[in-house]
User: Fold these one by one.
Assistant:
Number 1:
Amino acid sequence: MIRFLTAGESHGKALTAIIEGFPSNLPLSPEFINKELKRRQAGYGRGGRMKIESDEAEILSGVRFSKTLGTPISLLIRNRDWENWQTKMASDGKRPKNIERVSVPRPGHADLTGVSKYNYDDIRNSIERSSARETAARVAVGAVAKRLLEEFGIKIGGFTESVGNVFPKENIYEKILSDADFNEAKLYELIERAENSAVRVLSKSHEKRIINKIDMAKKSGDSLGGTCVVIATGVPLGLGSFVHYDRRANTAIAKNLLSINAVKGLEFGLGFDATKKPGSEFHDEIILRDGKFHRKTNFAGGTEGGITTGLPIVIRVAMKPIATLMKPLKSLDLKTLEEIDARRERSDTVAVPACGVVAEAMLAWALAELFVEKFGGDSLEEMKDNYKSFASKIEKRLRKNFK
Ligand code: EPS
């Protein structure tokens, strides 16, 4: 079993993460993690914070001479903005009198729910930990999971599909699902296009339409959400199980992806569009190709009966619009109960491109969970032996059983 926890307030000293249960001897460097952190910070439509931060992870434990020890891995990401918040976010001493007590909740953020649940006297206490700043720590954790999966030929990537309902002209998502031969090389090609785009989309014309939409939203003080697509190739058949609700591959994936701030929906494979097709047009027909089992399509998105099929995992993630609006919605001042404009504070207009990077991290984590559960082992070598003995024999065993 692997697990992780993160800690840290948005404007506190730092974010930290502890990862437990990873095998020993996995090559791991801060550079690998930092590349992912940099990707999360990019994206047209982000606010002023990303100009302040330059996220970098320090590995505090669990790694020696660039290889994991099998001991807890701890990571630290310093908040540069802490310098401006030291007094307001001090962990010791008494609260200074001149510090604002935030009392007007923003609809859509964890302001009213958090302050009510934790009996706070300042909405700032809710804002800090509920901020999507925490996803920096998750991307660092996800990078460690990505590193493990890479050892087994699993590649994870993705792109922005839409922002503010501006979709590409062609339904790329369905096209990917129609292609049972979608593989790492094809994923790389998509990643390259996305990484060259300011909003992580696949074409310049789509990028232009989205940037226009973001500029319009920003000008009118509004915010936008959108959808992103995450894909994992090279995932072997056999992760997860149908025997229990909590052992399904879909459960692990959904739990991790739905935990991302502002994510409101997921589609596995064709998802909601599957309901519009008859069974004869949806299910992925089984064929024999080059002596191996294969499928005609991947509409299921890489799982059947809670077990990975060996085809790519393909998921669409829906992110709601950012909750902080410069043209605020109505709210109440908790001090006076007067109707008043919701609080404004520095924020992003759009964070869908960043959400895609976080979604990759969480998909990587979910797959690492399933992988470690299936192939176990205290060292990477042991895990590789277990993996090989399963993967190389599946088809041979089946043939023998049904002779
Ligand atoms: C974020 C840091 C935050 C926001 C954003 C995500 O920085 P600050 O609050 O200091 O401006 O930019 O958080 C939200 C949009 C939110 O609603 O919580 C980050 O590091 O991703």
Number 2:
Amino acid sequence: MNDLQGKHLVLGLTGGIACYKAAELCRAFIKEGATVQVVMTEAAEQFITPVTMQALSGRPVYTSQWDVREPNNMPHIHLSREADAIVIAPCSADFLARLVHGRADELLSLMCLARPIERVPLLIAPAMNREMWAHPATQRNMAQLASDGATILGVGSGFQACGETGDGRMLEPAELLEDIVAFLQPKALAGKRVVVTAGPTFEALDPIRGITNHSSGKMGFAIARAAREAGADVTLVAGPVHLATPRGVARVDVKSARQMMEATLAAVPRADVFIATAAVADWRPTSESGQKIKKDGTGQAPMVAFTENPDILATVARSERAQRRELFCVGFAAESHDLLAHARAKRERKGIPLLAGNIGPLTFGQDDNQLLLVDEQGAQELPRAPKLQLARTLVAEIARRLPRT
Ligand code: CTP
């Protein structure tokens, strides 16, 4: 999946040890299908060579406003006009200050000043020592830059090259990539609150064993990420899975269906959309043994009684806000056959406006999936694609169905 296909990015490097991470970031942009034009300040050249950045981007690097390659000697104009976004990574404390003052005595700040401000977004990945980061001057500069229309991508925290520990490290290339991809997605859910359940549940039998299922959580996590990319405030209620939390998403980890129910009911009263992707166990052992259940030597297996778990989706769908369509509920159905008939019946049974059906064995643990969307009007197939791509389409379909505000 090429998340930056067709995009042209200008990657600006300023003086800081984090320049070594800019090499990987450049590569990540290229791998995602973007074209990248690197522009470096003189200070950046102290940390990494233009040769490295040229090799990774496949284009000669610009370092000076006096570059003779330009027929009219105006690289600051044409470089900024071509870009879908300008990303400064790393952005030093000095360069932040330069941007705030609209300085224009070297190519990178000149180009930022000359960019068409409405059309070419400026994204900043600061990188500096923790004291420099915490200094009121830097914080003031950042607030000013944000109010001048730049997007500050934030910083990481931890061990710094100077030997100190704290805030101010540049975000990792993978984090920056995720943030920049998100930034460039359409904002169909701006200002909306979304709650997603994901993964399996685990119903304990004793302290050692329990009942669970093969759900990997990938589809739910992809939906949470896509909703966040679309501008929503997202809460992800996750069963036991080993997946990284999508950036900017609030995650609540749970184990059992009852815990998932509790966390969901705490989050939905403020939500506009609820998407139930979790493969919730239908039953739990009626009693959980406090100690490991041991073999008793008779060869007889213990009898286990089961109790039905609460249906989270159906409970939320019955709430007043859902009935009034202030809370838009989306369900999932994993079937093995007759998908359309089962999906239609399940949508009606759960009393929800939209249901996404899939064939269980074709989705569990896979990176790809295909969906059948069923609503009042009928059914629509979303052909096989990576889960994140399907999630983005699903999010757009949900946004289209929300009441206009
Ligand atoms: N769901 C839920 N709480 C449950 C069970 C299911 O929220 N206790 C949600 C799932 O997250 C999914 C949908 O309901 O969105 C699936 O419905 P369900 O009837 O449980 O599906 P199956 O278990 O596949 O049903 P069936 O027994 O009919 O195959």
